Structure to design on (148 residues):
């Protein structure tokens, strides 16, 4: 298990150091802002849609390693997904970070965040960009997400 934990940590460190899709999109179809004042994480998630499918997802902002790595992995995974598939993926991810249980069917970079469940205060860091992305995908007027 030790090696597995180290591997997962490597994924988070790598995504934090070299975040993927880290840019402000010009003319996005949707965007939403996510704020986690407890930790100081603040990101904007940008989406370009192709019908119901997410054609492109980027994010920009600043925050801790967990929040940045999570947004990096998320934007990589959302590309090509329908909004419905994105919601399902989030439900899986939320279960993972709150329980630490890794679903074998979903082994991916997302699994790197299983250890977050040991640090309840960091769960909001991990899920912040997901809340913002799902809000953006809904295209809701209320596009600002603040964790409690
Ligand atoms: Zn944070």
């Amino acid at each position: 298990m030790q090696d597995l934990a180290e591997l997962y940590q490597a994924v988070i460190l790598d995504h934090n150091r070299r975040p993927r899709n880290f840019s402000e999109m010009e003319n996005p179809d949707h965007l939403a802002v996510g704020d986690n004042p407890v930790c100081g994480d603040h990101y904007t998630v940008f989406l370009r849609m192709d019908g119901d499918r997410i054609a492109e997802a980027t994010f920009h902002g600043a925050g801790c390693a967990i929040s940045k790595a999570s947004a990096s992995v998320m934007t990589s995974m959302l590309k090509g997904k329908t909004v419905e598939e994105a919601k399902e993926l989030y439900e899986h991810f939320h279960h993972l970070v709150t329980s630490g249980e890794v679903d074998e069917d979903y082994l991916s970079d997302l699994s790197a965040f299983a250890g977050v469940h040991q640090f309840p205060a960091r769960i909001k860091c991990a899920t912040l960009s997901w809340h913002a992305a799902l809000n953006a995908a809904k295209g809701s007027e209320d596009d600002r997400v603040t964790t409690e």
